[in-house]
Specification:
With 438 residues, this protein is an alpha+beta fold. It folds into two domains: 158 residues, Rossmann fold, CATH 3.40.50.2300; 239 residues, Phosphatase 2c, domain 1 (4-Layer Sandwich). 39% of the residues lie in helices and 23% in strands. The chain has eleven helices and 18 strands. The strands form four sheets. The protein has a six-stranded antiparallel beta sheet with strand order 6-7-18-17-14-15. A five-stranded parallel beta sheet has the order 2-1-3-4-5, with helices on both faces. Strands 8-9-12-13-16 form a five-stranded antiparallel beta sheet. The chain is rod-shaped and about 115 Å long. The N terminus is likely disordered.
């Protein structure tokens, strides 16, 4: 109650004037009508507060003790609480602490009514979880202002909850979209890896091993082999600039231009009058791809490529290197040799010059085409493997067959980088030439 029991008579004497003061207040409805819980062990004080609160447009419920008020808070959606400080069994601060522990979804604005006014007592009330306090005797104007302040806090809290719900809804939608995108990218990864249909190809004249490991879901690397005719094959390794979906789409487009499944659409081939196919010069093929990329594809991407046409009868190989890492030739008993002089990437400059060079392959020779994701792999200290490191590795693993070599190369790169995921796409092609069929 507002005062100890011994002072009830005094309160009764002042209630009439207080009531007259409150009745003179303007009856302005709150912007958002709130339910107010009035807790006081004095029935007279509850009714005095309730009468004026209803005139101001509030819905009022009453409790005669902190325990009763706590039970109402469990059952009712109470937004504003006016509680006396001095009550038997459970004081106002104790009631406030218990109220805060209920774990309600909506916030409740708690005002303590007290005759106490020292800084220590104010601190005690606020530390109990109260938002505000009013010192008796209570003026209607001050109470109205404090309630309005509480309404503003509740409105801001409700707006914040609404915004949080909107954010949570948006996050759930994003998560759903992400899951769908993640699923689609996983499918795209499988489709991209299907571009390398076989990873271990045996032909009468030798053996070809292929590996394609994107750094993410999809990547811009591609390695491949296509049959020109009965005695010629084409081998290539290319790397589209950038990463992600656009690079992967570009790679898929290029795979169609160098496909062994549809020779009539393979830009590296030319049909003879007999209906058979022969190989174009690799430099001519890359020049045609450069013109196509600049004229039709309308993309900011470019790509590098190393492509070889191998005559399996003679062992003569013609190669073009267009901005791609140097092809490596390994001969039995000799250190690895880098082939080519670099060249310019494809898709940057109109009429860029590209040239081919010839290399004689002998039985037992090994050709390695690869992407810069291998040579630019970094250890934890930022040291790249580089061409020298790859050459030393290939020299030490010369006895391995091409499939085992590629598997061991991936394992070695993971050990070198101390990571199971690569920062760049990793791809490689290994061709072991065994010589012509006798």
């Amino acid at each position: 109650m507002l005062t100890p029991t011994s002072q009830i008579k005094s309160v009764a004497q002042t209630s009439t004037s207080a009531s007259l003061d409150w009745e003179g207040a303007s009856d302005t409805d709150p912007a958002v009508p709130q339910r107010v819980l009035v807790v006081d062990d004095s029935r007279m004080q509850r009714r005095l507060l309730a009468t004026n609160l209803k005139k101001w447009g509030y819905e009022v419920i009453e409790a005669s003790s902190g325990a009763e008020g706590l039970e109402l808070c469990r059952k009712e959606n109470v937004s504003l609480i006016l509680s006396d400080w001095m009550m038997p069994e459970m004081t106002g601060p104790e009631f406030c602490r218990a109220f805060r522990k209920l774990g309600r979804d909506n916030y409740g604005y708690f005002i303590l009514l007290t005759s106490k006014g020292s800084s220590e007592e104010v601190a005690e009330g606020l530390n109990s979880g109260a938002d505000d306090f009013l010192t008796k005797p209570i003026g209607s104007g001050e109470l109205r202002a404090r309630l309005r302040a509480g309404e503003r806090v509740l409105q801001m809290q409700a707006a914040l909850v609404e915004k949080n719900e909107a954010v949570n809804t948006a996050l759930q939608r994003i998560e759903t979209l992400y899951d769908a995108l993640n699923h689609d990218l996983s499918e795209a990864r499988h489709l991209q890896q299907s571009l390398v249909r076989e990873t271990d190809i045996t032909i009468p004249e030798g053996r070809v091993g292929l590996n394609l490991t994107p750094s993410g879901h999809v990547g811009g690397d591609l390695v491949g082999k296509f049959r020109v005719n009965a005695h010629q094959i084409g081998l290539f390794s290319l790397d589209v600039s950038g990463h992600g979906v656009t690079s992967a789409l570009m790679t898929a487009r290029l795979a169609g231009y160098l496909s062994g499944l549809t020779p009539s659409q393979n830009m590296a081939l030319r049909r003879l009058k007999t209906g058979e196919f022969t190989a174009r010069d690799p430099a001519e093929t890359v020049s045609a791809l450069n013109e196509l990329l600049l004229r039709e594809l309308e993309t900011e991407h470019y790509f590098t490529i190393a492509m070889s046409i191998v005559d399996l009868r003679s062992g003569m190989m013609r190669t073009v290197q267009a901005g791609h890492p140097h092809p490596i030739l390994q001969r039995q008993g000799h250190p690895p040799i880098q082939l080519g002089e670099g060249g310019m990437p494809v898709g940057l400059i109109q009429d860029a010059p590209f040239t081919s060079f010839e290399t004689q392959l002998f039985p037992g020779d090994r050709l390695v085409l690869y992407s810069d994701g291998i040579t630019e792999a970094e250890d934890p200290n930022g040291q790249m493997l580089e061409e020298e490191g790859l050459a030393a590795y290939l020299d030490s693993t010369r006895a391995l067959e091409s499939p085992e070599l590629l598997e061991d190369l991936l394992s070695t790169l993971r050990t070198y980088t101390r990571s199971d995921e690569f920062d760049d796409d990793v791809s490689a092609l290994v061709f072991d030439y065994e010589g012509p069929v006798t």
